[in-house]
Amino acid sequence: MGTTSRSDVQDAAAASGAPAGEVTAATHDMPTEVRRTVDGYLLAAFPWYGLDEAFTGPRWLMQVGAAADGIVEHGSTGHGEEPSLKVETTTESRAKQRFSVVVTVASRPVRRSADGTGMLEATSVSSAAWLAGSGLLSCTWPSQMERALRQDWLDQQTAIAWELADDLGGSAWSQLTLPVDGVPTDFHYRESEYGWVLAGSAREGVHVGAYGRGMSAYGLGFSVVKDITTYA
After folding, report:
1. 126 backbone dihedrals φ, ψ, rounded to 5°
2. What spans are recorded as compositionally biased (Low complexity) (predicted)?
3. Which residues contact 36 (CB under 8 A, 6 or more apart)?
4. Using alpha carbons only, what angle is made at residue 185 by residues 184 and 188, rounded to the nearest 5 degrees?
5. Handedness of CA 150, 153, 154, 155 (dihedral sign)
6. 219: domain range?
7. 18-22, 91-95, 188-192: range with lowest mean pLDDT
C-alpha cells in the first residue's frame, strides 16, 4: 500500500502542507497527551469509521498511517477493552479480552510516489483486509514464546494474512452483511483461533476493515465518527 506508520504528527502536518494553526485550533482545549494521539486523525481528508451508537462501551484511538509525503492514508478506532501484550498478561487473560477495532482506509487510485521515482499501489478492500489481519496479529502474538520462535511465528502468520487479504474470493472468506451508516453492506469475513477479521467498502470513499475477539462480529454496525475527539 506504500504507507508507513507515523507517530510524529508534526512531521505529517508539515509534509502534507496542513497549516499548524489549524491543528492547534482544533485541539487547543485538550490535554497535551490527548493532542498527540488525536492530531493525526484530524489531518485526514476522509471520514473515520467506528462502531455505531448501539455500542455503549469504551472507545479509544490507536495510530494513523501516512504515506511518505505525510498524507494520512489509514487509521484505527478501538472499542471495548484495550488489548494488552505485556509479558505478565497470560494467554488465558488475553483470550478473555473483549474488543473490536475498526480500520478506515482512504480509497486511493494508483499514483506517483512523493519523490516522483515510482508508483504507489491503489488501495482496495484487500488493503483493509490486510491491515485488519495484521492488526489482529499485533494483539495476539505469543509474548511468552521464546524470542526467536516468536519472530518465526510472526513472519509465518504475517505472510498468511497477506495471502488471505489478496484472495478475498477464496474459501477462507465468507460473506457477512452488516449495516454501514444504516445501509446493509456486504463484507468479506473470516475467523481463526485468534479472533475474526472482516473487510468491505463504505459509501464515503473509504474501505472499512475490522478485527476483534470476544465480541461477536455478527451484531456489529458501523457509522461515520462525528467527533473523533470523543475517542481520545
Report:
1. -60, -35
2. 12-26
3. 9
4. 140
5. positive
6. 3-231
7. 18-22
At 203, the amino acid letter reads R
C-alpha gyration radius of the chain: 18
Q: Residue 192 has what pLDDT?
A: 87
**Residue 3 φ/ψ, nearest 5 degrees:** -115, 155
The Cα–Cα gap between 182 and 164 comes to 28
Give the C-alpha distances (Å, rounded to integers) separating 220 from 22, 174, 226: 34, 16, 18
What backbone phi and psi angles, to 5 degrees, belong to 159?
-65, -40
Backbone angles phi, psi at 127, to 5 degrees: -60, -45
DSSP 159: H
| Helix axis angle, 32-42 to 20-27, nearest 10° | 130
How many of the other CB atoms lie within 10 Å of CB of 183? 9
- Count: domains in the chain: 1
Kindly report the length of the chain: 232
Measured CA to CA in angstroms, residue 191 lies from 10, 99, 160, 198 at distances of 38, 15, 13, 9
pTM metric for this prediction: 0.79
Distance between CA atoms of residues 131 and 136, nearest Å: 9
Task: Provide the residue type at 135 as one letter.
Answer: G
Contact 208, 129 (CB under 8 A): no
Residue 22 has pLDDT above 70, yes or no: no
d(CA 146, CA 148): 6
Q: Would you report the helix, strand and coil content of the chain in percent, each value rounded to 5?
A: 30, 30, 40
The mean pLDDT value of the chain amounts to 78
CB-facing half-sphere around the CA of 165: CA atoms within 13 A: 27
Single-letter residue type at 130: W
